[in-house]
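Repro case for the chain-ordering regression, as requested:
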Amino acid sequence: MWFWANVTGSFLEEDHSFNLDEVSVPEIMQILTLILQIAILLVIVLLHVAYATYFERKIIGHMQVRMGPMLVGYHGLLQPIADGIKSFFKEDVVPAQADKPLFLFAPVICLVTMLTSLAVIPFAKGWVLADINIGLLFIFAMSSLASYGVILAGWASNSKYTFLGGMRSMAQVISYEIPLGLSLVGVMMLSGSLNLTAIVNSQGNSFSSMYLFPQIIGFFVFFLAMLAETNRVPFDLPEAETELVSGYITEYSGMRYALFFMAEYIGMMVMASIGTTCFLGGWNGPFEVPFFPPLWFILKVYGFIFFFIWIRATLPRYRYDQLMALGWKLLIPLALLNIFLTGLFKILVH
Amino acid sequence: MITLTDTQTIDVPVQSGEEDRYHLKMGPQHPATHGVLRVDLDLDGETILTCDPKVGYLHRGFEKLAEHRTYAQNIVLTDRLDYIAAMSNNVGYCEAVERLLAIEVPERARMLRVMVCEMSRISSHLLWLATHALDIGAMTVFLYCFREREVLLELFAELCGARLTTTYTRLGGVRQDVTRSIMKKLDKFVEDFPACIEEYETLIDTNRIWLKRTIGIGQVSAEKALDLCLTGASLRGSGVDYDIRKHMPYAGYEKFEFDIPVGETGDTYARYRCRMEELRQSNFILRQCIDMLPPGPVLGKDAPDLVMPIRAANKLEVDVPAKNALITLIEDRDVFMEGDIYVATEVPKGELGFYFISDGMGRPYRMHIRSPSFIHIGALSTMAQGAMIADLIAIIGTLDVVLGECDR
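-- result from build under test --
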């Protein structure tokens, strides 16, 4: 955020002519700057979310020998906007038997936690809202909290399918949080930090120094756990359409449905960002781009999202118990093995 | 003592009293119950304790309705039985009535019937594969299948004006002869189709998740399958070699060369393999149809049918003999024999049988339809015992039921 820092910095210098309290002005300006940065980040991310849906529909469409959205705007380019407007003006139905406060609150939990985890992601050198020491842990905490939204949605709807969806989600999140966390322990050991910027910096600037190569097992576990964590195919059990109608979002409509949808896509982006930061070297690319620092970061994140979509177009869905078996019997042992190997490697090198 | 294999999970014993069960009424408006099937489930977690299919949401009273309509008029009812393979039903019905009324069918019409039967078998199996794969979560197969199915439906539309409710056959033949353009398009389809089957197979045939979701799911032994009266690919998947086209040929099937694919294990995967092979065999039969199609009329001399308008338009025979007119079906009671008959044909879903009791009135005194879907739904509760919800969806898919046929 150097650009905004510069702008606000020069703005501050001009503002000194006003006879305000000299101590409070920088503090107020700092807060205002931060709010401005947050607002800009939110707008950009939400636009990205809108167009990630377009991206997904177009890619899946072409993989499935059809066109995807074509009618709204040139090649359907305005489709996400139209969808947004539509869901905004749709009636917000609350089922009579639902637990109303929880029902209304659940999508907000999902969205807010997902948005919060954006704060610690470094989009480029210095482009991070909160450069805290426990960035990685913070993201895990937030994505665990998001599952409360899903469980509460399933519970509060007071419907059979949503309840089953919520239960599935609970079991799935608990099972896959563990390998997700363990898979990144190797990265933490190599970089010696939980700060995402430090992790990127420790990977250096070259292709071969990416953690993808020494942590290939960790990356494999991380990728599968990431799919499960974001409820994507082949682990989309909580919202398995052909089994549970729409799972936990069966009773939701209009904007609240859209909030879940946005949370899912932001979740995808956050997970893809962690993957990019921890394994693919973050914002570092094959050559420096002078005009747009986060270019490589965004390209890598969209590469991840493309894989998400590709998998969705290809694979069938796991069964509930098979999902559990995969998580506990394959991914967790693999992640532990990875930690062991990384530790062994570190001891041998030193 | 519990011993575990790879596929088993540990079942923690819980009290199985009423209060611990989760009652779920799945359907009739559930996306995966293939129409309006309702399944009442008692669940322990996600494991199915009891499964009770409820049918009747699409009941239209065809069997009763048929008693008030002439034999020729009833053909349109058969379209609405299994609306995915209407041609097969048309043929099955006409074969039965022709045997009852002793009507001769010309050679070309018989061959055309085989042709449309196999086309409808392919289109029905494609829809089965599409929805079965979609139920298990493979979305792309769905659209690939519809791409090929579209070609066949367009051909049906060109042949008889309708894509689904075809009413193509007539007592004593078929409605219209094929045109050269249809044969050309069909030839191209038959040429391209084997490559398409391979394309579907690359997506799911050896896919680990697909194998995990289908192998050992809904397993029925050969004896059990016979006890449950399964027919068609659902029976052949269990290793019973029974196909009416081969064992009791009708419409000239004896002249064709084809194999009956038979599975071994009787699980969902075996049935899937059977149907995929059947697609290839049907394509092979279509190829033979194109090569062997004999010239000649497509409607018999003594066909009591609605041919009047066509003949008048073609100026072939303006003076239609009264015997051939539809009106004779109602008025001239001597034409029809008394007695009863059961004729079964092999439709894509299994054995479709028509049972008629005739009192010589020109209308069936009683028409009973032995529809495979109805009997297959009866097997559902046995097959889904102890399975999970996701398996139930796979089992409904593998039985290939159509509720229009089940409820009639």
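Ordering looks correct now. The two ends of chain A are 37 Å apart (CA to CA).
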